[in-house]
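Problem 12. The chain below contains 137 residues. Write out its predicted structure in C-alpha coordinate notation.
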Amino acid sequence: MPTLKPRTTVTLEPSTHAVIERLSVLQGRSRGAVIADLLDSVAPAMTRTVALLEAAAAAPQQVKDGLRSVVEGIHADLVSASGASTTQLDDLFATLSGVVNAGSTPVPVTRGSGTDSTLIRKRQKSIKKASKPGVSD
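Solution.
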Protein backbone atom coordinates (compact mmCIF):
# COMPACT_ATOMS: atom_id res chain seq x y z
CA MET A 1 0.00 0.00 0.00
CA PRO A 2 1.44 3.41 -0.92
CA THR A 3 2.33 5.77 1.90
CA LEU A 4 2.37 9.54 2.18
CA LYS A 5 5.31 9.38 4.58
CA PRO A 6 8.67 10.50 3.16
CA ARG A 7 11.22 7.77 2.41
CA THR A 8 14.98 7.79 2.84
CA THR A 9 17.56 5.35 1.53
CA VAL A 10 20.26 4.44 4.04
CA THR A 11 23.44 2.45 3.42
CA LEU A 12 24.39 0.36 6.44
CA GLU A 13 27.47 -1.48 7.57
CA PRO A 14 27.00 -5.24 7.07
CA SER A 15 27.10 -5.88 10.82
CA THR A 16 24.43 -3.24 11.47
CA HIS A 17 22.25 -4.67 8.72
CA ALA A 18 22.63 -8.16 10.18
CA VAL A 19 21.54 -7.02 13.65
CA ILE A 20 18.53 -5.19 12.24
CA GLU A 21 17.63 -8.27 10.17
CA ARG A 22 17.84 -10.53 13.24
CA LEU A 23 15.72 -8.12 15.29
CA SER A 24 13.11 -7.86 12.54
CA VAL A 25 12.83 -11.66 12.32
CA LEU A 26 12.50 -11.98 16.11
CA GLN A 27 9.81 -9.28 16.20
CA GLY A 28 8.05 -10.52 13.06
CA ARG A 29 8.31 -7.07 11.47
CA SER A 30 10.01 -5.57 8.46
CA ARG A 31 13.51 -4.10 8.67
CA GLY A 32 12.03 -0.74 7.71
CA ALA A 33 9.58 -0.86 10.63
CA VAL A 34 12.41 -1.70 13.05
CA ILE A 35 14.56 1.16 11.74
CA ALA A 36 11.61 3.59 11.80
CA ASP A 37 10.90 2.71 15.45
CA LEU A 38 14.56 3.17 16.37
CA LEU A 39 14.66 6.58 14.71
CA ASP A 40 11.32 7.61 16.24
CA SER A 41 12.70 6.77 19.68
CA VAL A 42 15.68 9.11 19.24
CA ALA A 43 13.73 11.87 17.45
CA PRO A 44 13.07 13.92 20.65
CA ALA A 45 16.81 13.96 21.46
CA MET A 46 17.63 14.89 17.86
CA THR A 47 15.07 17.71 18.03
CA ARG A 48 16.76 19.14 21.12
CA THR A 49 20.18 18.78 19.48
CA VAL A 50 19.01 20.59 16.35
CA ALA A 51 17.52 23.41 18.44
CA LEU A 52 20.80 23.77 20.35
CA LEU A 53 22.84 23.76 17.15
CA GLU A 54 20.57 26.38 15.58
CA ALA A 55 20.88 28.57 18.67
CA ALA A 56 24.64 28.09 18.67
CA ALA A 57 24.88 29.08 15.01
CA ALA A 58 23.09 32.35 15.75
CA ALA A 59 25.08 33.12 18.94
CA PRO A 60 28.13 35.40 19.25
CA GLN A 61 31.58 33.69 19.30
CA GLN A 62 32.00 34.00 23.08
CA VAL A 63 28.73 32.15 23.65
CA LYS A 64 29.74 29.54 21.06
CA ASP A 65 33.01 28.89 22.90
CA GLY A 66 31.17 28.46 26.23
CA LEU A 67 28.57 26.21 24.66
CA ARG A 68 31.26 24.09 23.02
CA SER A 69 32.95 23.38 26.36
CA VAL A 70 29.61 22.49 27.97
CA VAL A 71 28.70 20.14 25.09
CA GLU A 72 32.14 18.50 25.21
CA GLY A 73 31.70 17.89 28.96
CA ILE A 74 28.24 16.40 28.45
CA HIS A 75 29.55 14.25 25.61
CA ALA A 76 32.33 12.90 27.83
CA ASP A 77 29.77 12.09 30.56
CA LEU A 78 27.51 10.29 28.07
CA VAL A 79 30.39 8.28 26.62
CA SER A 80 31.52 7.15 30.06
CA ALA A 81 27.94 6.27 31.08
CA SER A 82 27.26 4.32 27.90
CA GLY A 83 30.63 2.60 28.17
CA ALA A 84 29.67 1.30 31.60
CA SER A 85 26.34 0.05 30.23
CA THR A 86 28.07 -1.66 27.33
CA THR A 87 30.52 -3.30 29.71
CA GLN A 88 27.67 -4.53 31.89
CA LEU A 89 25.88 -5.99 28.86
CA ASP A 90 29.10 -7.67 27.73
CA ASP A 91 29.49 -9.19 31.21
CA LEU A 92 25.88 -10.40 31.12
CA PHE A 93 26.35 -12.02 27.71
CA ALA A 94 29.59 -13.65 28.87
CA THR A 95 27.85 -15.01 31.96
CA LEU A 96 24.96 -16.34 29.90
CA SER A 97 27.39 -17.90 27.43
CA GLY A 98 29.20 -19.54 30.31
CA VAL A 99 25.95 -21.05 31.58
CA VAL A 100 25.20 -22.48 28.16
CA ASN A 101 28.74 -23.78 27.68
CA ALA A 102 29.11 -25.16 31.21
CA GLY A 103 26.72 -28.07 30.71
CA SER A 104 26.81 -30.70 28.01
CA THR A 105 23.44 -29.68 26.63
CA PRO A 106 20.89 -27.11 27.76
CA VAL A 107 18.07 -28.54 29.83
CA PRO A 108 14.73 -27.91 28.10
CA VAL A 109 12.36 -26.14 30.45
CA THR A 110 8.60 -26.03 30.19
CA ARG A 111 6.30 -24.56 32.76
CA GLY A 112 5.13 -27.10 35.29
CA SER A 113 7.40 -29.82 33.98
CA GLY A 114 8.94 -30.51 37.37
CA THR A 115 12.47 -29.59 36.20
CA ASP A 116 15.01 -30.65 38.78
CA SER A 117 15.89 -27.37 40.53
CA THR A 118 18.68 -29.14 42.44
CA LEU A 119 20.51 -29.78 39.16
CA ILE A 120 20.16 -26.12 38.21
CA ARG A 121 21.52 -24.96 41.59
CA LYS A 122 24.49 -27.34 41.28
CA ARG A 123 25.27 -25.95 37.82
CA GLN A 124 25.07 -22.38 39.09
CA LYS A 125 27.43 -23.21 41.98
CA SER A 126 29.95 -24.87 39.66
CA ILE A 127 29.86 -21.86 37.34
CA LYS A 128 30.46 -19.49 40.26
CA LYS A 129 33.38 -21.63 41.46
CA ALA A 130 34.87 -21.77 37.99
CA SER A 131 34.70 -18.00 37.64
CA LYS A 132 36.62 -17.40 40.90
CA PRO A 133 40.42 -17.48 40.58
CA GLY A 134 42.16 -20.18 42.61
CA VAL A 135 38.97 -22.14 43.34
CA SER A 136 38.68 -25.66 41.98
CA ASP A 137 36.29 -28.59 42.45
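Discussion. The mean pLDDT is 78. Students who got a different answer should revisit the alignment rule from Section 12.3.
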